[in-house]
Amino acid sequence: MTGVKSSWIAQLLRYERRGDTFVTHPRQVAPGQRLFGGLIAAQSLAAAGATVDPGKLPQSLHLYFVRGGRYDVDVELHVERTRDGRSFDTRRVTAVQQDAVIMEMIASFHVPEPGAEEYPPHRPTVEFDDTAAREPDLEFADLFELRTRPDDDRPFAIPPFWIRARGEVEDDPLLRACALAFMSDIGPVPVAHPSGVPLRPGAGQAASLDHSVWFHRPFVPHDWNCYEVHPLNVGDSRGLVHGSLYDRAGTLIATTTQEALWRV
């Protein structure tokens, strides 16, 4: 362990366990705001991970946001043990709030295995030394430091950017994977917007529809990481994006995809 008593992510993932049902009480961030998707993703991954052998680490997660959640209302995370294998475990998590499903997730856990390590060489779209500190309009903004191009004056956190948690996170692979799941939901929605729509508050209705993360290599939340997200498609009021998370050495840490609803 790192000596951290209780990190920001550990506090956000506190739950009451009732067998394979985990109950959380998300704190209120601001009046009227919907439950942040990254928070429910992290909590669901934590609940799933609590039901697998500690030697099996998160491999991927794929989730659908069924309806908007609320703060200050208990969330029940129902974990289904879909499969326990020698190398892989599969879990399904259904998040329920006031008897209504708000999210469905399937996650896979894998025993680390020796093998080839390959990924395309990558040069950051924006070099760390060419960035400046930013304080965008962002839920949980107090938890993170963000750096973008000095001339980026947009009100939202829009990749590419460099990000790190302000507080140290325990040296626990599941906890750090949950932090990654949380942080990976910062930025994709604005990238998915139609190119002709100005990015400003009230420009349209936007919401995450589904989100996926593949965990490639160990993640250190309190170190600087570069998050790059690129648009792939816009159509039928939906935008699809693809993301990659790199550490300072250029190592590919994780890959993400997200589709967002954009009604303008």
What would your notes on this structure say?
A 13-stranded antiparallel β-sheet has the order 1-2-4-5-6-3-10-13-12-11-9-8-7. The model has no long low-confidence stretch (mean pLDDT 92). It is globular. The relative contact order is 0.17. Helix content is 12%, strand content 39%. A hairpin with a 2-residue loop joins strand 11 and strand 12. The protein has a single domain, classed as Porin (Beta Barrel), CATH 2.40.160.210. Helix 2 (37-49) packs antiparallel against helix 3. The longest helix has 13 residues, at 37-49. The protein has helices at 8-12, 37-49, 173-183, 188-191, and strands at 16-18, 21-24, 57-65, 75-84, 88-97, 100-110, 132-134, 144-148, 161-165, 205-215, 225-235, 238-247, 252-263. The chain has 264 residues and is mainly β. It is built from four helices and 13 strands.
Describe what is shown at a glance.
This protein is mainly β and 264 residues long.
Give average pLDDT, whole number: 92
User: SS-based structural class?
Assistant: mainly beta
Distance N terminus to C terminus?
48 Å
- Can you tell me the residue ranges where pLDDT is under 50 for at least 5 consecutive residues? none
Q: With helices defined by DSSP (H or I, 4 residues minimum), what is the helix count?
A: 4
The CATH first-level class comes to Mainly Beta
- Fraction of residues in helix: 10-25%
Summed up, the domain count is 1
Strand-residue fraction? 35-45%
Largest sheet: 13 strands, antiparallel
The sequence of SSEs as H and E is HEEHEEEEEEEHHEEEE
Radius of gyration: 18 Å
Order of strands, main sheet, comes to: 1-2-4-5-6-3-10-13-12-11-9-8-7
Q: What coarse outline follows from CA principal-axis ratios?
A: globular
CATH topology: Porin
Q: What is the fourth-level CATH superfamily?
A: Acyl-CoA thioesterase, double hotdog domain
Quickly give the CATH architecture. Answer: Beta Barrel
Number of strands: 13
Keywords: Hydrolase
Domain Acyl-CoA thioesterase-like N-terminal HotDog: 31-110
GO molecular function, one term: fatty acyl-CoA hydrolase activity
GO biological process, one term: acyl-CoA metabolic process
